[in-house]
Structures
1.
Amino acid sequence: MGNKLTRRQFFRNTTGTAAIVGTAIATASPQVHPPGLRGNTRVQQIATNCEMCFWRCGVMAEVADGKLLKLQGNPHHPLTKGKLCARGNAGVALLNDPDRLKYPQIRTGERGEGKFRRVSWDEALDFLGTKLKELKQKHGPESVALFPHGVHSGFFATLMKAYGTPNAAEPAFAQCRGPRDIGYQLTFGRPVNSPEPVDLEESKCIVLIGSHIGENVFTSQVTAFAEGLSKGAKLIVVDPRFSTAASKANYWLPIKPGTDTALLLAWMNVLITEKLYDEEYLDQYASGFKELETHVGSYTPEWAAGMTDLPAAQIRETAHLMAEAKPSVAIHPGRHVTWYGNDTQRARAMAILTALLGAYGRKGGLFLPTKLAIGRIPLPQMPESEKPRADREANQYPLASEEAHGLTQGLINATLTEKPYPIKGWIVYGQNILESIPTRQQTLAAIKKLDFMAVVDVLPMEQTRYADLVLPEATYLERYDPPAIVTTSKRPFVSIRQPAVEAMHESKPGWWIAKEAAKRLGVSDYFPWADPDDHLRRLISPLGIKMDELKALGAVSFDGKPYIEDRGENDGPLFPTQSGKIELVSSVLQDLKLDALPKYEAVEAPPEGYLRLIYGRSPVHSFSRSENNAWLDDLMAENPVWISSKAAESFRLTDGQKVILQNQDGVKSPAITLKVTPAMRSDVVYTVHGFGAQGPSLKKAYQHGFSDTALMTRIAVDQLMGATGMRVNFVRVLPAERA
Amino acid sequence: MPRYAMVIDQERCVGCQSCTVACKSEWDVPNGSARTRVRNAGVRGDYPNFVSTFYVSQCNHCDHPTCVPACPSGATYQDGNGIVRVNKALCIGCGSCVAACPYGARYIDAAKGVVDKCDFCAERREAGLEPACTLTCPANAKIFGDLEDTGSTVFNMVYRLGAQRTQSAEVRIGPNVYYAGRPEHVEMAAAAFPPGEPRTVAAGRVWSGFAKKVVYLAVGTTFLGQAVAFFHQLATGEKQFDE
Amino acid sequence: MTSQTVPVVPAPLTFEESRLMAQSLIKKHQVAVVLLHWFNAIVWALELMTGSALIVAPAYRFMPNWYLTMMQEMAGGRANLLRIHIAVGVTWTIVFVVYAVFGWRYFLHAEVLRKEIGLEGDDFRWLRIRILLLLNRTREELPPQGAYNAGQKLYALLIYAMVPIIMITGWIMAFHLIGTFAVQWAMVLHFVAAGMVVSGLMIHVYMGAVFPEEKPAFYSMITGMVDELYAYKHHFKWWREVKLQQHEWQEGIENEGREAVLVAKRADDSNRAGAARIDPEA
């Protein structure tokens, strides 16, 4: 009856079971957080800096056995002091992003089809060398333009200059900070630079004009902002939308878009007519007061009220608030200021107002940068270009005079029109060219005229599809980049970026790519340093920093001289303008026969039924850079469009409804979610920039939300320095089913 | 005996979610869940006078937690320092505690099948480090400390500056995350996210109600039945069957 | 007794018949069954002890504090209680599953199932009379039972029904299978099913270990054997089947023997006949 079989079976079972039971017990006790993380001596702390945006906060990477466990702030970083924002913390997800560019590729199908074949680095770099040499021969080296992004793009800048082209432009100038850097340079002799030297933590009155700190998160700036407020600083926020900053303000001025200069002039009017300006300071340091006084005579608060839609009494009150707090008044110069095409003059007005309050170079206002004597790496003479820069005509944009003042849209236009000469090759390094530069249809058309396009990037952003050659760069966590030399900090410092983990897949750091490309182009002499350590050593040696100390701490700081009272004879001019004084009336502009004092010029109003499209940031994203990040996508996957309750009512729209935006040129957005709030003006719609990715290889980001840039078919170009004002597009808001 | 607490400064917090992500990174919190959350408490007022603020929430390590008694296996417990913790080795992932928490502070980690939540970074503190969220917060808006330490910032903020707890008329279980700042901000944050009713999951209600009764009845009846049989046996003196 | 004399209904026995039957043993349980039974007993003891100590929430618990503390200390922590509970439960499941897989032809055979849990008319009558007997409210005789009486069959039915529930819900909870909703209901079902088995055990253990009339049954769970008299009195239908089989076997042997004798005789006869034919003068 099967007796023996079952008995044997029974005993066999129990022994077999024991093994199974063992594992059963093990799996029955779930894994907790990696045990012993804190007391684990295998865990290394590697100091580096972040590139999830461009503030480059200090980061400590916790690494065990070559695996990144976690990122946190670097407590030794003199500016960020161990704080790290949401994007910084999410760098882990960038490292492990499955959509990362992994290996070099060469196009096989039609341009834009997205068909590539995988190649070795050797083949890829040889291909790059061959193509660039071809273009040099056929059209001259000026026919190749570089579109870089970030200070670490210096290696590529060197490469292309050595190659012989004068054509390079990053969006930072003409699509972002350019106008304010020029405006403040004209006034004080220095651009604003980054990080902005705004003494928020010591300020007694903070003024934000179109700046939304809190939604715009740069770690140390938020720290200083919060600190200043907690010490009792007054806050004035000028913004068509009730931002997070506005929620903390003593005054929210819901200004009519495009009229900020009117407000600034009216403030100047109040300060001058009521003698609330810092007379001693101006007497000592400034020139042109009399002209200014005359100039602002007619710009009364009552006049401005009509322009700005703000009560005259409020304009006066806020002027008084600033005056009470002087000279510790921090008028934030803003960061992205390319709004209406008249932005340099607005920046001038902000600078002049700052000067009237005696706040430049004073505690609680704007502090002065302290130079650092970094080393220079001597390079051979750069080849002279026979042809002029292609991004502008001869006398256009007179203030965009320096090499760094490249105009991206100028280069795109030159490619499209072939004037002043054809541009046949583009090297796009980390610049999301189709999303950052408005009028993307022009960009797409220009791309079609290229003989060659190489893209170097970390993620397969949209422009990758159009490339002939795609080179995968390692993330910031896997590479060396030139150190951040920060002078616009109360304690100037050097902060390094060093690899925390080995580069994944076949990605390579930018310095290596540039150096290898240089070999193919025969310009290796321009890269005389052997490796990152050599490069870093040459830069830091004059500062007397020890390499191992710097590598362990991540940053080393020095004593600073942020305020005028700290400075002496040997510290150089306080105001390196032509005259050596603060130029309330700009001598440079006078010489150019342009408005030496800012005038108010009205901007075009939206047509009937249209609202102005304005945009901003989210604290959990760095525009398209973070859109594909798994952790950040979880917090915000789409960008709704904000509209005021009043406007929603008049268009019969409701909160949460799906709508389509159609701009003045008929361009439509995809269906997006509407967010209705009472806390904003009724003549604008607002959204967070950086969504609506068109690169299908970005699995998370692809077509999530909508692109505001795609709706920017019009720009207003600042005639002084070429910036593209982007807040000049108007949209209708239509229910999605109807449109 | 320390009494740990956290204070959120409404005036400093800008709703940037740095704390959310730092915590997620530290404790492998899966997408879709959070140990600490930042939510917008909305906007109040008439144009152009508005009030708006954020509400940062997480496990409150309440004085009288409703989650601890809800846990069938006692996996959720409150340690000597008042921290409510989860012993993952005892947790079966039934989610009774998730429903019992009025603040929605807990989540089921789908990958591991067990419950998780903030424990004030117990493992970090054991190594002498501060919680990941308070460390990373750019605005220094989250402050952690010991309410028994009269020199601590939390003590000052709670007992001298009047930081508030988020409680309602019905749910007053003594949460130990406090909110400080302008009254209109504190009040607005609390009103936007009041504690909910601590719930019992349906299966739990059945267990403590019908199921328990049925089992007691069955076991009781059979036990009694056997007792009767036993006495019957003694009475009739049934001996070993053997004739 | 011969096959002709195997009674169809239980008849009173003579003293001699009783004595003989009391000394004759027949096989009730195979070794596998015996081992499995005690394996189960140990498992159930452990699981009930640890399981009841694991439930601490005031709304659900049913054991006193001192018991919970004692078990916790014995196991070296509550987490260990769960680990033991799971380890034993997993072992138990695996043994049964392996058994089922390798022995399904035997264990899940219709005949076996009928024997263990198949309820017939006799069983229902037996139940009624047995309860009334307990309450001293009848003088009826109990109807004859098979290998397992009605009470035992009911108990087996309960086990067959509850054990899969306990196993499945146990695994769901131990390994967090399916999802939270499943785990929640698994908790309740596990508790109810276990509770039902406990109530069955009340009777089963009493009957097996305390009730004197069933002492042979208890020993059969150790030796595998019962004496014929006990079987005749308590499980007549089964005794009869066994007896008939025995007689059949005996008859078979006898028939074979008789057949052999006849064959031998026939061979012998034909030999003699053959011999006679060969030599008429001898």
Note: The two ends of chain A are 80 Å apart (CA to CA).
2.
Amino acid sequence: MVDPAAKFSIRDLHVHYGQFSALRDLNLDIRANEIFTIIGPANSGKTTFLHSLNRLIDLVPVSRCRGEIRLDGIDIRRGLEIEALRRKVGIVFALPLPLPISIFENVVYGLRMQGIRDPQRLNEAVERSLRESYLWEEVKDRLRTPAMNLSGGQQQRLCMARILAGQPDVLLFDEPTSGLDPISTAKIEETLLILKEKYTIVLVTNNVAQAARVGDRTAFFLMGDMIEVSDTGKMFTTPADNRTSDYITGKFG
Amino acid sequence: MKPRLAQKIAFAFLLLATLLVVLPVLVILLIIVAKGASAISWDFLFSMPRDGMTAGGIFPAILGTLYLVIGAIIFAVPLGVLAAVYLVEYSSDNWLSRLVKLSIVNLAGVPSVVYGLFGLGIFVTFFRFGASILSGSLTLGIMILPVIITSSREALESVPRHFRTVSLSLGASRWQTIRHSVLPHALPGILTGMILGLGRAAGETAPILFTVAAFYLPRLPQSVFDQTMALPYHLYVISTQVPGIAENVRYGTALVLLSLVLLLNLAAILIRSRFRRKKKW
Amino acid sequence: MKPMRVRKLKEWLIEKSILLSGIFSVVFVLLIFLFLLREGLSLFRGESVIDFIFGKSWYPISDPPRFGILPLILGSLLVTLGAAAISVPIGIAAALYIAEIAPLRLREGLKAGIELLASIPSVVIGFIGMITLGPWIKNFFNIPTGLTALTGSVTLAFMAMPTIVSIAEDAITAVPRQYREAAIAMGATKWQTTWRIVARAARPGMLAAVMLGIGRVIGETMAVMMVTGNAAIIPKSFLQPVRTLTATIAAEMGESVQGGPHYAALFAIGIVLFVITFLINGVADLYLHRSRR
């Protein structure tokens, strides 16, 4: 049963790396314009899940996926070209990963790959997306300088601008602040709260408090299974499963 | 014997061995420079030979080597770089890629005179190109293919994996990713390989013995179907088959060839180490 | 903005060419073997393989011609073994020094020096060997000519050493740091660590280095042609001139009639060389893979 308001609907998803079962029997809807956070200990399948949403998992030769993922009702494996999917569903990784080119070129990289060359369009996209990720003021005078010269927090916001330039529908974040200091972390969390008005956001985090701060709904993954999913407030006050409460309170992790 | 003493003796032996390997380069260089420098002159390098090769210059041999080497590179670099791209970016660890890698190892180990036989059999005879710059270049090209492929592979593999992941995640296709996020950063390494290939092709004699080289040609080659003189072959003939050539002319020819090859290799080594130090990631 | 379909087609073409380029190396190996067979097999219409490989007489221009390559095989073997006897101990020792003992900046310089040695054209090394080493050996041993198997061995040792040193050095540096640290922690000296632990661990790689060095020597043509004297008879000592398989091809191809038995015999020698180096390189590659794992 597909929920018409769902941005992503995932049905019976199983993912294997060779013999190893990374995700089992996942059924889930992600709603438009929400911040959906995923928590859980290491190796629980959180990143695997994220990478399944934009088919980055295809890069792993031994990976096998079973089940169905639909974006706006369209099957992402059969109904959509892989490059188009990845433009609609952008990802920011745990470590800031700028390409060794200028700030400007980083932001317009996806647009250039689509064939967009008109300088006016590119300039407009750069300013818009750098403003959306709150980096514009800091870099507007040095757009042609190497992106590698920015600080960690700035680089991560650059990576956000990079995906925003292509006007995606969904933003995936894989532990985006795990390598950053608290101030940069706070800046990024603020930005997420503003971005959700235009985009749907899926955030994987190993920082339970972060999920509590920004998530609308939260899912708890454990060793390849999704244990439970509910509104963040409810999950943190009255979790349905013992394992969820044990993880949240720090009994393991 | 106390361990410390044993160590001192052992280390001394090892150092001696190392010197035995490295010093001969310098010795060979010194001998050739000492005895050959007197023959080097503008005339020697740029004019045609006279009096049955006993006087005049070696310009046609130098030019011929240049032609052959450029021809070899034109053939080997596109093919070799693409083959490296295949191995690093497109192949998975299956029987085909292992077969390709094994073939490259074998091509690298084929004796140079067997390449000469191959060139004779296929280009000179079968394709009827005859003994020509074309036959010689193609033969040399296949011979240096492993050098180009191996160094291009290393260059491509040294580009961090995450460049590819990031590019693909931004919606680029596989080829776009290679073209824009991998190849540009591998270019110095590929260039290094190209220069090493040039040096190798310039110094080889056996592959060109049956496919192109001639000792005395009255004119410079006019087309790719002509034969040509070449430095390594020239050196071989004047040192083993032609009496009456002044000693410094022999050493001078060796000096020209050696300088060409060593300069190319030195350039490759320098580019490689500058590249390693200046990497922006 | 280019229409999507055109770009997709262009990319498909490019990716297919890439695949083809990869396969080309396999094609070339097969082609080489094929063309050697094409020209060389005709010899065996008139002569058996056994007579060819084990025949003691190589008289290609006599009437009737005799095509036994045993003298040539023995010539190659003698020169190769001599070169190996010199280059293997020295090469391994030098590799150990460079990898384990030399200070860092010296190491880069040494490796560059060895790379330069490896790049010297074989005709230049043959030239030097012929002009300097040959007469010296003639005088030292008081023999009629200085162009002998020994001269060949010494000259070729210089060509094998860079190969052996650089591949062995790679294998030695690849030995994980923990091995050395564990040995030092137990009180071993650096030399004991290097010799007993590191060298042993790097053994497959060092073996591969030796094999590749030997492969290089067997395949050498010009240098060997210029210093070994070119006498195609069964050698009885190191101080005699010999002829190798490679030199025979290079020296006699010019005198042979295309398509004739001499021509075919030279190609047949090529087949023998191809098979030998194929086997050596294949085995060496296997050892290199074992050492990397």
Note: The longest strand of chain B covers residues 49-50.
